[in-house]
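Morning, I've got a small favour to ask if you have a moment. It would help a lot if you went through both lines with me. I owe you a coffee for this, so here goes:
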Amino acid sequence: MVARGVPTSTPSWNADGLAPAVVTDAATGVVLMLAWMNAEAWQLTRTTGLVHFWSRSRQALWQKGETSGNTLRVVELRLDCDADAILVRATPAGPACHTGATSCFFRVDGGPDDDGVPTAPAVDVLRRLEATVRARRDDPATDGKRSYTRSLLDGGAPAILAKLAEEHGELAAELPAGAPSKVVHEAADLLLHLVVALAWRGVALDDVWRELARREGTSGHAEKASRGRP
């Protein structure tokens, strides 16, 4: 077992009294920017919940988004193993880069510039879908019309369960010999309606991920037996 020492909430500042701070989007994991903090910026970030930095060029404190409105709200602060680098997990209120790009890391070695957002892993696609479904659930107005998702949510259990059964049946019909493209299409439909069903029940996808992580490395038979299932 590796000894990790006593947790600390004080960064180890360099000779100039600074530490690099990497900011990531707490929801997607995308790296948004890199800047510097000193002790005052660190304390302001902790006490206000809004990310502050120290500008080496202006020799002054600055709050991210103080003029643009593109603030970064703190979700979690972490230090690396030597406590000399800071990781800020934050919720951005807009583009993190002054150029208007989502991330400052939009320059691709050997390729054209992009928005700084790498191709999202599947879990991020589902999280964005979940966010959209929840927005439909919590704000029924969509350009004066009911969205498809909203119509399902308004239909409650009968509508949602009927669609889950329908989509499950269509996927089951394609799995034995259907074209791979059809299997993909039906699997996506089933996932979409599952996300709607979970949002309707108020169950977060993150709770599902945690349950799957809990089961990792456990025999399926043993896991079922632990719940008293045959």
Remarks:
- DSSP finds six helices and six strands in the chain.
- The two ends are 37 Å apart (CA to CA).
- The chain has a mean pLDDT of 88.
